[in-house]
Amino acid sequence: MTIRYAALDLDGTLIDAKDQPYEGVVEGLRALRSQGVEPLLVTGRSARSFRNLRHLDDLLGELDDEVLLSEGNVRLARDRDLLSFPRTCPVELTKALDSDLVSDLVIEIGGEFHASTPRSAMQFAMAYQVPRRQIRSGIPEPVDGLGPTSVTVFRSDVPLSTLVAHLDCEVAAIGPFDARVVRPSGTSKATALARHLQRRFAEPDLGRTLAIGDGATDASMLSDCATGIATQNADPVAVEAADRQLRGQLASFLHSFRSEGQV
């Protein structure tokens, strides 16, 4: 088997909780490239949150210019600072959630955050480590037919699945504040990655791609790619989906990796 691409998660895989690269990872990515493997970043971070990582130029310089954000539903071309939105929720989602039954929410649309209340803005800033000043007040009207990339709901008096059932969206739980996030149906890193490889590299499938991650949202690409590697402290869901879990540091694996044959 020949590996030509490596899809890597960001938080907990390449960088730590303080947004610093793990020791040796930058050099490890450089070694990966020397094997003829193109490293691709696939992260759950939003565009706004990712742009805050301006100190990671050395790390990002070893990755492909186009980054998949928001679980793959947003694409950023870093050289032009240009966002595109392969998949969004319908514009009707905003109206469906704009009621007395849903009182605290934050909408991600066009790469920006908009909070319905000061409380939801504060909770979102704490949960996602986004500066409070980068969250705008008030829910905007849709522009040019662009729907939300995601909606994070902190308080709802009715099941969200009932409100969005007819809108081709799905609801998932997230840890902080018992919140729920609404995204386009079928959102996963694996489907986004396959679509991205086809568009950018004319690669027909994930058969020549190595996936590396640590979280539950990485599980789809860890299971669907040719080889899935869970990091040393990965979530049990990621470990179950992967072919192998690292016992040591990621940098050591990247340095020892060979694109030809088994990993």
Question: What would you say this structure looks like, in words?
Answer:
- With 263 residues, the chain is an alpha/beta fold.
- It has 10 helices and 14 strands.
- The strands form 3 sheets. A 6-stranded mixed beta sheet has the order 8-7-6-9-11-10. The protein has a 5-stranded parallel beta sheet with strand order 2-1-12-13-14. Strands 3-4-5 form a 3-stranded antiparallel beta sheet, covered by helices on one side.
- The N and C termini lie close together (9 Å).
Side by side, the strands of the main sheet go 8-7-6-9-11-10
What percent of the residues sit in helical stretches (DSSP H or I)? 25-40%
Q: Main β-sheet, in a few words?
A: 6 strands, mixed
**First-to-last CA distance:** 9 Å
List unreliable stretches of 5+ residues.
none
Element string (H = helix, E = strand): EHEHHEEEHEEHEEHEEHEHEHEH
Oligomer: single chain
Number of helices: 10
Features:
single chain, 263 residues, alpha/beta, 6-stranded mixed beta sheet, 5-stranded parallel beta sheet, 14 strands
What order do the helices and strands come in, and which of them pair?
Elements: E1 5-8, H1 25-34, E2 38-41, H2 47-51, H3 57-60, E3 66-69, E4 74-77, E5 82-84, H4 92-97, E6 102-109, E7 112-115, H5 118-128, E8 135-137, E9 150-156, H6 160-164, E10 169-173, E11 180-184, H7 189-201, E12 209-213, H8 219-224, E13 227-230, H9 236-241, E14 244-245, H10 250-256
Parallel strand pairs: 1-2, 1-12, 7-8, 12-13, 13-14
Antiparallel strand pairs: 3-4, 4-5, 6-7, 6-9, 9-11, 10-11
Helix pairs in contact: 1-10
What does this entry show, briefly?
The protein is of the alpha/beta class and 263 residues long. 28% of the residues lie in helices and 24% in strands.
